[in-house]
What does this fold into?
Amino acid sequence: MKLDRYDLKILEILSRDGRITKSRLAEAISLSVSPCWERVKRLEKAGVIEGYSARLNPEALVKRTPVWVQVELKQHNAESLARFEQRVNETPEVVECFAIGGGMDYLVKTEADSIDAYQRLIDAWLVSDLGIERYFTYIVTKAVKRQGPPALPTVDD
It folds into this structure.
């Protein structure tokens, strides 16, 4: 799907404010309401816009302890990687996991009720059949920057 400058501007605005009215969105991109809304519907139908959501402040809901963990596995075959990734996907305390290059295999973000709860999670992983060779734990002491999606590319007219 080819996106023009109007589409990109729509996406930029909606990524920051999914609750903007049709008329304010149209005004912001210098189109009338009807063509603007047709573009939004086309972007939704094409799957470019997957949905709309609220950005929640987890600290306001429940106090969780964010911990990042670098994990290296003993073996690097498809079975070992799949076993680890399946466990990660089954673990509710894991909120993000990335396969990474350079020395370690995975970077995992957990959010547990406490450091003790995090340690119990890691202890359970270590005595299971996950094949963890070593891991490094990084306790988050404060959030320095949190933001939404990165800026979209520009289109030459």
